[in-house]
Specification:
The complex is a heterotrimer. Chain A is mainly α. Chain A contains 14 helices and 2 strands. Classes of the chains: A mainly alpha, B alpha+beta, C mainly alpha.
Chain lengths: 398, 267, 182
């Protein structure tokens, strides 16, 4: 990756000093994607929980889809990490000898536990559907559906009530787990005291809120996109409710993001001059211009209008995907500015480096695009097995 | 004249070596166990290391850098690179040059980590220099290391006698320790793809020799010793009135690397 | 409608719990079996690494390592003002010169001519102000040659014996019966 030491005009460049080992950006694109992907997973799960646990009926049309969507992204959550590691073949050590004092060591177990939980929640929710498909289909698919319904075709009331209890239980522990999964990702950064941009107790909160935001936005956008291309009808009430939640979470997210910077500015500790040089230096464009001005303020206003003003369905359906996409970009930029931004300032407190990602290589832009496309491919494959929409299930209990 | 005597001496020595090497020494080698390397036959530089046969030594090592003595020759950097074959662009130790002008602006540089020495004065500085000095940097061997705290697999650890080391057979190369170190002494070795850092020459110390950088420092700006030994130079420095400080004390890492004459400008 | 099902109503849950328990127990034993043997012996790390680290071979020796063979230089070097200068910083590491079995494995390059002056200036160049004067004699180059009225193309080593820079100066003074400092 190409890293240039900051050489501005005049004295500024003379005073710029970066520790010799600090010119390398060790955490690059892949570590930007890792919290982005886990954030989308956590957010999508919360959308589903809003229906399954909190009883937001309007979200029923996307309640199943959001779980499959979360699973598709969760399958790829480890990819960027494996691409990043110097020795991916030793990654299993995270399970074998997790260091109890390391924030990162928990990832293996938290990730696995969450994966198991999500898969089971999906299987229990889908069991009647799986059983029905098992009875209908032939060949390999018959075997797959039989396996996915645990080889139990008992759909008696007793059995479904049991399933319902398990679903409630899993969704119940799923919410704190989704919060742990992502709040903890924030802590990986928030616990690094050497880095004044990362070291703040607000970091897990900001990561969690932005995770919810990106998950909801991802669901809205992909739901509308899939419906558009598969020719289904979009449930406008569902979109309106989703937008309300998106706005709500985004208010919290954006306010906390700004509060963090403002607190640093107000306290003006010796860390602030480092951060100031960073935010008005190498990070100015991606932070102030893009993340804050373009992709936060505009969606913030748009969402406010969409939620508060009585608008026609047509307008909602036009703006919803645009706002969602902008929010997705905002969260990606936020991940970039945190992960990359934190490494652009040297521990010398006297200098910054600039970073431009490379195209090729294990951690290049092309690899990043592949990693981000993979969940969509997996989502497509999963949609062949799990019907995404409830109305597609003809043999629903009648 | 001196040169001639030298030549003769050398020839005579070579002759004796040849004869002895072929006959007596040759047969002796079969009976007397010899140390692996000839280096080991040289007297130990750290007293009492031969008796340290336990897994961890009974010593409490500290490193003291005397800023008022460093001449910025870069010998330490040369020695370090030679001892560890450190890949270019990465530094286990480095020497910084501080320049403070009469407007109290601070200018720091460290071209190639000081490996090539300081040949050129800094140019283009707008005001006259008030104070200028060199600051060697290396691993702080923290009492409470951030790097070992964050390592996900326990590949970097603190030994019972205070050395922070990296097990390169277990390091996964996640760079978390690199991010966590407040002193930026760690890097990812591009060849082994594992984390690496200054070890205070653990392998030398355990064999009774001073760290390479200490051993080569011409002005004794780098000192290494045992705090349990009240006769040691480091004990005297840390227990007698001196201007002694550590880097970034606010971090709470409690480094075992101390600086004599540290200016407040040094980070 | 599914009355024909022959499975118990909770059969799937029982199967699932059994599967999870089997995976959990299997995982636990796999963890025990695959972790390094000496892991946790002294702390959360592979205890055997201490021994591995101890046994890393030295690349650099000490000046005494060099003086085991290079006796004449030792006599010159040990009393001179350069006695604290490391042989290996100028000449290269011991490990590149002498092998494990005490045999010579390579010749270290000898610095000549201009290279020597470069080496001297690395420490003695007066233009670098940061050097504490009490620790090192600073020389302006090439002003020093002019002051000493020698040929401006001279290398440092033509007047100064590099292993003891004042040796020849002292000897010359003795021969000329010049007092100290003249």
């Amino acid at each position: 990756m190409s890293v240039g030491v900051h050489h501005a005009e005049g004295v500024v460049s003379l005073a710029n000093y970066v520790f010799p080992n600090d010119v390398h950006i060790h955490w690059s694109l892949m570590i930007v994607l890792y919290p982005y992907i886990t954030g989308i997973v956590a957010g999508a799960f919360i959308v589903s929980s809003l229906y399954h646990v909190f009883g937001i009926r309007d979200l029923k049309p996307i309640s199943r889809y959001s779980l499959i969507f979360a699973l598709a992204f969760l399958c790829c959550a480890t990819w960027p990490l494996l691409l990043h590691l110097g020795h991916p073949e030793r990654a299993f050590s995270m399970f074998l000898t997790p260091n109890p004092t390391s924030a990162m060591a928990g990832f293996g177990y938290i990730y696995t536990a969450y994966l198991i939980l999500l898969v089971h929640e999906i299987l229990f929710i889908y069991r009647p559907t799986m059983v029905a498909l098992w009875q209908q289909s032939k060949g390999i698919m018959r075997g797959i559906y039989a396996f996915l319904s645990f080889f139990n075709n008992n759909l008696s009331r007793e059995s479904l009530e049991l399933d319902h209890k398990i679903i409630n239980f899993l969704a119940g522990i799923g919410i704190p787990m989704a919060c742990v999964l992502h709040g903890y990702v924030g802590f990986i950064f928030g616990g690094i005291k050497a880095n004044p941009l990362w070291a703040t107790p607000l970091m897990p909160v900001i990561f969690l809120l932005s995770a919810c935001v990106s998950g909801i936005a991802g669901i809205i956008f992909s739901y509308m996109l899939i419906k558009k291309f598969s020719g289904g009808t979009i449930d406008v009430a569902c979109i309106r409710t989703s937008l309300k939640f998106l706005w709500g979470f985004f208010i919290l997210d954006f306010v906390f993001e700004m509060l963090e910077v403002f607190t640093h500015y107000y306290m003006s500790t010796h860390h602030w001059h480092v951060l100031e040089n960073l935010l008005w230096g190498p990070l100015y464009t991606t932070y102030w211009t893009l993340q804050v001005k373009v992709f936060s303020v505009i969606p913030f206003i748009l969402l406010g209008i969409l939620c508060l003003v009585k608008l026609k369905d047509r307008i909602i359906l036009f703006f919803a995907p645009i706002v969602s996409l902008m929010i997705l970009a905002q969260v990606l930029l936020m991940r970039w500015n945190v992960v990359i931004g934190g490494q652009l300032m040297s521990n010398s407190t006297r200098g910054q480096v600039f970073f431009t990602p490379e195209w090729a290589g294990r951690e290049g832009i092309i690899a990043a695009i592949i990693v981000m496309t993979a969940p969509l491919v997996i989502l497509f494959i999963l949609s062949r097995i799990f019907p995404l929409w409830i109305h597609e299930e003809q043999p629903q209990e009648t | 004249m001196e040169d001639i005597r030298q030549e003769i001496d050398q020839d005579r020595r070579a002759f004796i070596r040849k004869v002895l090497g072929g006959t007596i020494a040759g047969s002796l080698l079969l009976v007397i166990p010899m140390p692996a390397s000839a280096v080991l036959r040289v007297a130990e530089q750290i007293p009492g290391m031969q008796e340290e046969t336990e897994v961890f030594t009974k010593k409490r090592f500290v490193f003291v850098v005397d800023i008022t003595a460093c001449i910025g020759c870069g010998s330490c950097c040369v020695a370090d690179k030679a001892e560890y074959n450190v890949p270019d662009g990465n530094y286990r130790t480095w020497v910084e040059r501080y320049i403070i002008d009469d407007h109290d602006d601070v200018y720091v540089d460290s071209p190639n980590g000081g490996l090539d020495g300081y040949i050129q004065p800094r140019e283009g500085l707008p005001h006259p220099t008030r104070d200028t000095f060199f600051v060697p940097k290396l691993c702080n061997m923290c009492e409470k290391p951030s790097c070992t705290q964050v390592c996900p697999v326990g590949a970097t650890y603190k030994t019972g006698d205070g050395f922070v080391l990296v097990d390169k057979t277990r390091c996964v190369g996640c760079s978390y320790c690199v991010q966590a170190c407040p002193y930026s002494v760690r890097f990812i070795n591009p060849e082994t793809r594992t984390a690496e850092k200054c070890t205070w020459c653990y392998h030398r110390v355990r064999k009774g020799y001073l760290p390479a950088c200490v051993s080569v420092c011409p002005t004794q700006a780098r000192k290494f010793g045992d705090l349990n030994d009240t006769n040691s130079e480091v004990w005297k420095i840390l227990h007698e009135p001196h201007v002694v400080s550590v880097l970034k004390p606010d971090m709470g890492n409690q480094p075992a690397l101390h600086y004599v004459g540290l200016r407040r400008e040094v980070v | 409608m599914h009355k024909e099902s022959r499975s118990r109503y909770n059969a799937h849950l029982i199967k699932l719990i059994i599967a999870l328990v089997v995976v959990g127990v299997g995982g636990y034993f796999a963890k025990q079996a695959l972790s390094p043997d000496t892991m946790g012996q002294y702390g959360h790390y592979r205890g055997a690494d201490i021994e591995d680290q101890k046994n890393i071979a030295l690349k650099l020796g000490t000046n005494d390592s060099c003086f085991q063979c290079h006796q004449p230089i030792r006599t010159i070097h040990k009393d001179g003002v350069h006695k604290t200068v490391s042989c290996e910083v100028c000449h290269g590491s011991y490990g590149n010169h002498i092998g494990d079995n005490d045999e010579k494995i390579g010749t270290l390059p000898v610095k000549r001519g201009d290279e020597i002056s470069q080496l001297c200036l690395r420490c003695h160049n007066k233009v670098i102000q940061a050097r504490p004067r009490e620790f090192i004699k600073m020389v302006g180059y090439p002003e020093h040659l002019e002051q000493m009225q020698v040929n401006p193309t001279h290398n440092c080593s033509q007047c100064h014996m590099v292993h003891d820079p004042l040796l020849w100066i002292r000897q010359a003074r003795e021969m000329m019966r010049m007092p100290e400092g003249a």
